[in-house]
Each structure stands twice: as structure tokens, then as C-alpha cells.
Amino acid sequence: MTKYVVKRVLLAIVTMFLICLITFFAMNAIPGGPFNGEKAKSPAIMKVLNERYNLDKPVIVQFGYYMKNLLHGDFGVSLKTGRDIRQTINESFVVSARIGAWAMLIAIIVGIVLGSIAALMRNKWPDRVIVFFATLATAMPSFVLASLLLLLFCIKLKWIPVWNSTNHNYILPVLSLSLYPMAYITRLTKTSMLDVLGQDYIRTARAKGVAAWKVIFKHGLRNALIPVITYVGPMTASILTGSLVIEKIFTIGGLGSKFVDCITNRDYTMIMGTTIFLATLMVVMNLLSDLVYKLVDPRIKLE
Amino acid sequence: MATENNVNDLPLPKKNPLSLQIDLSKFEKASEEEKKQQEVMSESTTFFKDGMRKLMKNPLAVGSIIILILIILMMIVTPHIVPYGYAQIITVNGQRDGGAKNLAPFTYSKMEQAYIAQGGKVFPHIMGTDELSRDYFVRVVYGTRVSFMVGVFASLIVLIIGVFYGSISGYAGGKIDMIMMRIVDIIYSLPDLLVIILLAVVFKETLDFSKVPVLQKLGANMISMFLVFGLLYWVGMARLVRGQILTIKENEYVLAARAIGAKPGRIIWRHILPNCISIIIISTALEIPAAIFTESYLSFIGLGVALPMPSLGSLASDARSGLQSYPLKLVFPAIMIVLIVLAFNLLGDGLRDAFDPKLRK
Predict the structure, then answer these.
(1) Which of B141, B320, B156 is nearest to B226 (CA)?
(2) Alpha carbon B222 to chain centroid distance?
(3) CA distance B304 to B301
(4) C-alpha–C-alpha distance, residues B333 and B319, integer Å
(5) Among A23, A135, A241, whose Cβ lies nearest the Cβ of B345?
(6) B189 has a chain A CB within 8 A of its CB
(7) What is the chain A residue with the closest CA to B333?
(8) Closest residue by Cα to residue A27 from A258, A272, A256
(9) Pick from A262, A115, A114, A272: which is nearest to A194 by CA?
């Protein structure tokens, strides 16, 4: 067990390092340094600037400085606005995190409920309806859904006000962000429940005379949820990438839309900082979900 | 003492109450006809034919195939029927028509109406026009074409690299296998979309295609997307193929082939891979909608194909600006994306139900 934990943590660290490497060298491969864009400066000033920001040293050394700063939590300064990147990330991540967390919660809860209903009423009409909508939802990209919802509820029907800095209405962004994971979890829970309910120990419990709801919840659901735990990692990735477009559509000033903006503006240091931040989040969630899965699955403990 | 051989005439020994002795005289012999009824033999088929038959019985899969064929036909036929190009601003009688912006479907601009009144023929705009006076239907069709081709090509790249890598790793075994799988693990844990975005940004600045016009039309972003698919997405396929090979490797015919002296490449190609084909096909069929998804997502953000070549994602993105006045502009590319992805998903599920050896009853 500890060998597995150590192996996974090492893998996560190697992945993070690789991401920083790729990000740094990718940004440095782009021609034109940070100071070449605006008005031409005299060579003396360029020399001083280059020395100050370590740009005259070889790339490996620059990478070393960057990693050292990173480990101290210093992400550097944005190229376009000059603000401290870490501060920008902190401010804009709050909103994104809130939407993301709500989306995850709703996806998990509704997904499990719907999946269980589909499994319990197999081949009757609730099952067919749920499976139909789940299949449809996995085919619909989140930006399409978000645009359609925006069109329907904000513009045509005017039931929900558009998002602005004073009025934060969470329903539509959370709904459009959570739909894909919700559909996936529904299908996952249904297959897993069907698997579990066919096992021998469920038959034993029923034969013993345990009440039906107890059989389903205490014995069945707990074991059926194990594959859902493994999905938490990819779900985080899907929610993070989904938030990029959702925030753009609903004009929410979160980290996702800032990321898209800095991509189109070619703000390289900001791209680096945000990429590393988001990648760290994804890797940590993957690691956590893997570890929790190994902890929770009783079949593994016997090894 | 019996002088005849008819067993029914022999005196039966005393029946032990615990024995299963049957009294044959109480049975009637079956006629030939009744014997034939007991034979239930289905005709012999190959694995492929059997799988295809199961696939054709699945209504969702058949529906998806029909939809895909229709879409492909539309993509091939439309450029010949509709006289507009995807980047062509509507011209009437040789003159640029400035008033043909944002037309609703099947309506005409003032210049076109005047032209029709004079007796000229104008091909109707089935989906109207966009904000730059280009025919929207042609743009949607070309966008579908781009998305389709990207999906198919990216899946092919994934297929080739993944099968190659997975078969080498699975067949070699031992230390080579372990190292190759470590690399796969590391690549697998990279967040793919972030790397795609990063590389797309980098390649746009650094790659220069002015000498190769075909590639330039596609745009650096598309090339970078193919590159990233080639670099990142093959790991799933490699794992699957390796898993299959590990089990197939233990069969006796592989041992026999090795004993004769067949080279490993020949063994893999001739004996092992044909057994993996169903997994490979299913995996590829489910990889295509994922690739189309990724492509439309990137186009939506602005990192997709270079303008003016349309893509379903960029069409959806541009349509957001005119949502209040002309909502259908968003609906058409959205429906196309959903249709294609849904069709491929259902087809992949149907293929899996028909061909996956693990699910066979």
C-alpha cells in the first residue's frame, strides 16, 4: 500500500516538473523577448533590463530561477498589465472555484440519483428516458449548451438576468458546466449498480430478510460508488476546461476567461503562470482520487 | 433363455427401489421427422459476418450509419450544387452585395431581389448569410467537412502510433515493457487540453508555412493540433493494445510460430493483431467524436483553423454576437456537431455490443 502511494506521488511530482519544463521552454521558443514589443529602447537600457531579469543567461539557468521562484510561490509579473500574477490568479479563481465546486456537487449528487433509479427500474420507462438524456448530453459540447441556455433564458424569456459584477446568478453557468459530468456519472453509476446488485452478497442479504432499502443503500450503493471515485480526477479536468468556454459565454470574470484572454493577447508570463496553476490543480485531484480509490476499495487491502 | 435378440422380451430383473432402471417397453420409438426437429444448427459464419449481423439488428447503430452516410453525401455533393464559396462574399451580377448581411433563411437582399425582378436566377440561401455576407449553408457544410476530416485523421494518427507502440511494448515484455509503460503513465497524467493550448500558441508563432500553400490554408493551429494528437492521445490505444497482446501472446500458435523461426514483426502482424482488430476498431470509432469535440472546442476559443476557413466551433463562436437578432446562426452548427458526435457515439456503442469478445454471450 505505501509502495503504491509513494509511486503515485512520485509520478505526480514528475508530471508537474514536466509541465513546468514544457511550459517554460514553449514560451521561450517564441521569438521576440518581453521587451522587444514596444518602442525601441537604447542598447544600454536593454542591457540593464536583460541583466535585471536574468534574460542574458542561458535558458537552463533562467529555468532554474523560474523554478526557484515558483517553489516560493512567486509566479512573476504579467507582461501586459504588469500586475503580480499570483494576485490576479487568487482574485479571479474565487469565482471559478465556486462555480466549479457547485457544478461538481450537482453532477455527483444528481448523477448518482439518476443512475441508481435507472439501474433499479431497468428497462422500464424511467430507465429509457434517463439513458436517452444521458446519451444526448454526452454528445453536446458544453459551449453549445451554454449558448443555447443563454439564448433561451436570458435573452428570449428574460427569466434569469445576465451575469454582471453586481448580480451573480449561478444557475446557468453551473447547469451548463455540470451537464456532461452528470451524464457520465449517471451512466457509470447505472452500470456499476447493475453489476453490484447481481452479486452473491446482495442475494444473501435479501435472503436474510434485510429490508429492501437497506440492501440498496447500505450494501449496494456503497460498493457501486467506487468507480465514481475514480472519475473525480477526469471530472476535475473536464470542469476546468469547460469553465474556459462557459466563462467566456456568460462573461464571468473568472480565471478561465482570463486564461482565454491572455492566450489571444499573447501574454506569455500569464499563460505560463495560469497553465501551471491549473495543471497543479488537475494533477492533485487525480492523485487524490487515485489514493482514495485504493483506500476505499476493500479488495485491495488484502494485498 | 431368450432365443430372440429383442431386449424387450428378456425378463427384467427385480427393480431395486434406488436404481434408475428404465422399463424400455413403456417407450415409443421416435420417427425420423421428430429426430430432425431436435437438430438446431445455425449456419456457419465468420466472426466478422456474425458481428455485422448483430450490428445491423441494432436500430440505433443502423440509424447512426444512415445519418453519417447522409452527412457525408451532403459534404461531397453540396459544393457542386450550391454556387457559393465558403469565403465568397455574395456578388450579384458581378457587383459586391453589401446589403446581404445576416439574411434569414430563404430571403433575399435588396440587390438580389432587384436582380430576380430583372429575370436573373439567384440560388436561395438555405441558411441565410452571416455578418460578412457569405452564404451560411456553404460555410456550415465546409465547417462540417473540416471537423470530420480532423476527427478521422486525428483518430488515424492515434491508431497508427498507439498500435505500433502498444504491440512493441506488449510483445517485448520485461524491462522494455516496463520503461515504455512508465513513459505512457507520465504522458497519460499530463493535462491534455492545457498542453494543446500551449503548443497551439507556440506553433502559431514559430511555424512558417508560406512555402506550402495547402498547410497554410489549414493554419498552424490545425497542424499543431495534429502534432499534439500524435504526441498525446495515442496512450489510451497503446494501453489497450498492450493488454490484448499480453493475453494473446500466451497462445500455442504464437509459440509454434516462434519455434518455426518467424520474425517477431511477422508474428505480430499476422497472428496477434488480427485478434485485436475488434478492440482497435471500437476504440477508433469512439476516438473520432472525442477528436471532433476537441477541435470544435479549440475553434471556439479561437485556436482552431485559420480564417476564413470555417469550423463548426468557430461558427458557433461567431454566432454568439448576433444571438438576439438571428438565433438560428448558433443552432445550425450546434445541431451539426451534436448529430455527428451522437452518431459516432451510438455507432461505437453498437460496434462494441456486436464485436467485443468480452461481451459475447
Answers:
(1) B156
(2) 19
(3) 8
(4) 9
(5) A135
(6) yes
(7) A144
(8) A272
(9) A115
Beta strands in chain A (DSSP E): none
Each residue of A122-148: pLDDT tens digit?
A: 888 888 888 888 888 888 888 888 888
Q: Return the C-alpha cell found at B314.
A: 468557430
pLDDT category, B218, cuts 50, 70, 90? low
> Residues A209-248, buried b or exposed e (16+ Cβ, 10 A)?
eeeeeebbeebbbebbbbbbbbbbbebbbbbbbbbbbbbb
Residues 6+ apart with CB under 8 A from B176: B168, B169
Min CA distance, B210 vs chain A (Å)? 17
Whole-angstrom Cα distance, residue B68 to residue B62?
A: 10
Q: Which residues contact B114 (CB under 8 A, 6 or more apart)?
A: B92
Q: Which run of H or of E encompasses B92?
A: strand B91-92
Spatial distance between the Cα atoms of B324 and A140, rounded to a whole number of angstroms: 22
CA proximity to B351, closest of B263, B272, B301, B280 = B280
| Distance (Å, whole) CA B317 – CA B302 | 8
- Biggest alpha carbon distance in chain B? 118
Do residue B338 and residue A150 have CB atoms under 8 angstroms apart? no
Question: Is A146 strand, coil or helix?
Answer: helix
* Concatenated DSSP letters of B193-233: HHHHHHHHHHHHHH---TT-HHHHHH-HHHHHHHHHHHHHT
Report whether A289 contacts A41 (CB < 8 A): no
Is residue B104 scored above 70 in pLDDT? no
Q: Is this complex's ipTM strictly greater than 0.85? A: no
Interface probe for B, chosen from A7, A10, A147 (most Cβ of B below 10 Å), is A147
How is residue A206 written as a grid cell?
435479501
- What's the rounded Cα separation, in Å, for the pair A165 and A279? 28
Cα separation, A115 vs A196, in Å, equals: 13
Query: To the nearest whole number, what is the mean pLDDT of chain B?
Result: 77
Q: A253 pLDDT band (50/70/90 cuts)?
A: confident
Contact A161, A180 (CB under 8 A): no
For residue B137, give the C-alpha cell.
449553408
Q: Write down the pLDDT at residue A55.
A: 66
B331 touches chain A (CB under 8 A): yes
C-alpha cell recorded at residue B77: 455533393
Please tell me the distance from the alpha carbon of residue A190 to that of residue B135, in angstroms, as a whole number: 45
